[in-house]
Amino acid sequence: MLADRLSQATQVVTDPSVTAGYEVDFTGAWRGRALLVARPGSTAEVAEVLRICADEGVPVVPQGGNTGLVGGGVPVDGGVVLSLRRLAALGPVDRAAQQVTAGAGVTLAALQRHARAAGLDFGVDLAARDSATVGGMIATNAGGEKVLRYGTTKANVVGVEAVLADGSVVSRLDGLPKDNTGFDLPFAASEGTLGVITAARLKLVPLLPYRATALLGLPSADAALAALARLREVASLESAEFFLPAGLALVRRHTGLPAPTRDGHAFYVLVECAATHDPSADLHEALADVDAPEAVLAGDSADRHRLFTYREAHAEAIRAESTRVGGAARKLDVGVPLAVLPAFLAELPALAGDATPYLFGHLAEANVHVNLLGGADDPTAAVLGRVAELGGTISAEHGVGRAKAAYLPLTRDAASRAALRAVKAALDPTGVLNPGVLFPG
């Protein structure tokens, strides 16, 4: 039996009351039935699990913190969930190289604490920092709130260790800043379809102790883009997030927070600067040139946390609201060219049909998290089709998963898709790794 073979190689969980937590994603929309959950504690154990599953012809679904939103970590029926959470080792911080090696199961919050204790930081930050893991962030090329300054996750990865479908291990954890001995294998953004990431060598950035945070109340998305153009001139600018009145109202109901501004506004932009010195004067100077009817500046760290909660609590508030009204929210993470962002946002209510849209995201990347609650019809095709017409992407940072695999031809041409499939076939010829993810059946 497969369970017997795997139990000799690693921890195995078969109790349905325990495996249930691995079988549904954060949204509640994507579910599967796992044959069992394997919980390896080392790269060697991961390799043995994959060798056994390859021998048995059983699908394997790698899973990190299970914070995904597109069904990429949910098991196919009869498959094995390969939980990487026990791979939680953190190596010493190399302060000279500004690097650290982290296991795939290390949470973002744990990585941040580890780096900051050494006077450094990690350049990626997400609202799901307490549960999102290093392996999952690399596999989906997670973005978050600091892409404006530091790029997406793959820009902060020096090298990875991964196990291929046949159990062989490839490792590039030496951290060499220059090494042109062939191209890097494309594990970033592969969503567990090419190999299982077990560890990564990560680039760190200076820890910036001084921060200046402001929430701007603006009359329109066009005004937000004008403000962003001026704010980009501030060298210390690190974040530029946005949300709209409907989402703000939902967050306030969910959290009990008071209104963040004296008056209501059509568009809200949350900005933060960070530096080795107090960047408040630079932010004040820039805001003096911004036509914002209202600007609220954080006076201390508690104020800063409160202002960020208005943005970061959107996901939880939407999940709570979806539970209240019944039915999971349709979550469409998209990106469009910055210049067309105002027009796209204006079109979304009509594209949503009879669903209620809640929109927020990352302003500088024109990355919109489209959340659709209720409605008799599914507007996914209409929204993603319009994104493609505007020259955008159907997935800016959450991955394709199972949710969007059928829509990939909208924004990736036939030659690109053929090349992706060729890489998949070379590294996973029997198709046991995360079937149905990224590539439709």
Contiguous low-pLDDT stretches (5 residues minimum) are none
Helix content: 25-40%
**Given the C-alpha coordinates, what overall shape results?**
globular
Strand order of the main beta sheet, please? 13-10-12-11-15-16-14
Main CATH class of the largest domain: Alpha Beta
Structural class, please? Answer: alpha+beta
Question: Could you characterize the architecture of this molecule?
Answer:
Helices cover 31% and strands 22% of the residues. With 441 residues, it is of the alpha+beta class. It folds into 4 domains: 2-85, Uridine Diphospho-n-acetylenolpyruvylglucosamine Reductase, domain 2 (2-Layer Sandwich); 99-206, Uridine Diphospho-n-acetylenolpyruvylglucosamine Reductase, domain 3; 210-306, Alpha-Beta Plaits, CATH 3.30.70.2190; 329-424, Alpha-Beta Plaits (2-Layer Sandwich), CATH 3.30.70. Strands 13-10-12-11-15-16-14 form a 7-stranded antiparallel beta sheet, with helices on both faces. Strands 5, 6, 7, 8 and 9 form a 5-stranded antiparallel beta sheet that branches. A 4-stranded mixed beta sheet has the order 1-2-4-3. The model has no long low-confidence stretch (mean pLDDT 94).
Q: What attributes characterize this protein structure?
A:
single chain, 441 residues, alpha+beta, Uridine Diphospho-n-acetylenolpyruvylglucosamine Reductase, domain 3, Alpha-Beta Plaits, 4 domains, seven-stranded antiparallel β-sheet, five-stranded antiparallel β-sheet, 14 helices, globular
